Amino acid sequence: MKKILTLVYILIIFNAEKSFSQDMKFGKFSQAEKDITAVDFEPDADAVVLEEYSVNNFNGGVLHNHYHKRVKILKESGTRHGNVVVRYFFGKSGVQNINKVSAQIVNFDGDQEQIIKLTKNDFYTVDGGNGWQEIRFTLPEVKVGSIYEFEYNMQDKGISFLDSWVFQNRIPTLKSTYSIKIPSYLNYRLLAQGDKTLRTEAKQYDGMYKWELTDLYSIKDEPYMSNHLDYLERLDFQLAGYVSANTSIVGGRSFKDSYSNWQELTDFLFETNDFSSYLKPSKVLMTSFRSNGEENTKELEKAKEIYSYVQQNIKYNDRIGYYPSQDLKSTLEKKQGSRADINLTLLAQLRSNGLNAYPVMLSSKGNGRSRLVDSPFLDQFNQLIVLTVLDGREYYLDATNEAYTFGHLPLIFHVDQGYLLKEKDAGLISLAFHHRSGINQIGNIKLNENGKMQSQIHVRFSEYDAISKSELKNELGEADFGKEIFDISGESLEILISEKDEPKKIMDVNISGKEIELNQQMLMISPFTYVRWHENPLKADTRTFPIDLLYTFNDLYSTIIEIPEGYELDDFPEPVEVVIPGNIATFTYKVEPLGNTVKVSSGINFKYSFIPAAYYPELKYFMGLVSSKLKEPVILKKTQQIASAKD
């Protein structure tokens, strides 16, 4: 009986270890790999990663990584993938090192395999700058049907932050596996992101953790997603602590002591010299602050005045970061600083005028973090802004750009969470950005004094729409701005533009459109001069990343067409009312004939600016419908009486 139990135990151990072994062996191909000619979920792909894996183990204070990748060429354009670059951080003292590099390419002629193995002379080491090095090599005779693979070993002494593992590639990936064995003397925090990654539970055995993802879309540029780094299927590990008297094991990368909670980290930051200089400014420095001591001044008015003063008097040097680069005295003397310097100066001046203000750290869009981890790690963040609470309402402020009025942030700062730093109750908070952005267009199309049809259009851009249009106008100039935005020209075209910041940011544009002669049997009249989408921006059949419209908006369009004498209404677009499931967005369109006039009205309302990729088919249809519907003309035709009289 004892022997049987021992045998069962051995089998269990064997099977568990086997489950952590890698199926892919260098130079051994399955029939499925030989047969594949296209990727079902991405049929246009010109190459595919058949499989890649990374196996990681620690030996003392060094991480040893064995990496293996296999690629198949599917189309002629895919032969470009035969040029391979492997980057690693060597630093000044060999933080990372790579050895035992092997590569080969296999072409198939029936059952025959034509194998070309690369030699040592085929691999080149190149300086990548700033401590980085690259191993480069080119596979020969790459053609449709080729399978190439390469592998190497890496030793990494910088174990405070392990290299990110991104499951996706620039081409689709059929299988990607990452495994790591963490010894008992090291404690790591896992930072995972991506829908598949978060849904995948790691397999565990004897300190080894293994993640395996399959059928991964390629990383590619897509409309309404300029920050795809934030949404990659990805794993990161950050050292949280270790059991050792020898601190040298953390290697050549910086190591920060971990903190048990956010308040502990906040207290540490507030005690540092540079940070505390803004929180507790001297009386001498406070004499140079903008001061409004009038008792009857409302909090909001006072805050806006201080915000404008800091914007105009301290120049931004384009340096980002969550920690000040200098103390308050230096910022005031130089009249320039980083984003953290300027916003902490704003905070100091708000507080000196009796207003509540707090620092907030963010991971802005494009920083590679769509999801913050609720553990006190500063390296999640890359920006610092200010939160002020006035008359019970929250305002988030960034004083580095004069284009942004009070309470408006750059759109890359529109994220879900931030780290609020306070003397008490510091920690992650949800962020909400209140605004009423959108386009309001009111038009009238009728006979002018010259006896021709002409449109008179008023377009109002509000808040973030106004900010973006104002920046574009300043970049292009007023004349070119009109041509670029409204896509119209002609002798009769007139555009008048006005802007104001209070009580909210708006841009008003008045347009006198081109004249239409009345010598036509049919008049095709487009009711709307300006629309948000001239054509559907979503053209691909599939979507990898979420859709980020940057901000919510509500557009309203209304035009009255006065039918000229001798014409009558012949045809007009059908009414429409569409809602994207989940009430993400709505679109309405209707035409109302009223005697000798026709009123055309439409509305587009997006309640959510960030839309998961699962809704892509519905959103693609929605945008296609909107862009085509708003271009449909109202058709007027000559009446029979007029036509007969002329005959």
Automatic annotation (TrEMBL):
<feature type="domain" description="Transglutaminase-like">
    <location>
        <begin position="296"/>
        <end position="361"/>
    </location>
</feature>
<dbReference type="InterPro" id="IPR002931">
    <property type="entry name" value="Transglutaminase-like"/>
</dbReference>
<protein>
    <submittedName>
        <fullName>Transglutaminase superfamily protein</fullName>
    </submittedName>
</protein>
<dbReference type="InterPro" id="IPR038765">
    <property type="entry name" value="Papain-like_cys_pep_sf"/>
</dbReference>
<dbReference type="Pfam" id="PF01841">
    <property type="entry name" value="Transglut_core"/>
</dbReference>
<feature type="domain" description="DUF3857">
    <location>
        <begin position="66"/>
        <end position="218"/>
    </location>
</feature>
<dbReference type="InterPro" id="IPR024618">
    <property type="entry name" value="DUF3857"/>
</dbReference>
<dbReference type="Pfam" id="PF12969">
    <property type="entry name" value="DUF3857"/>
</dbReference>
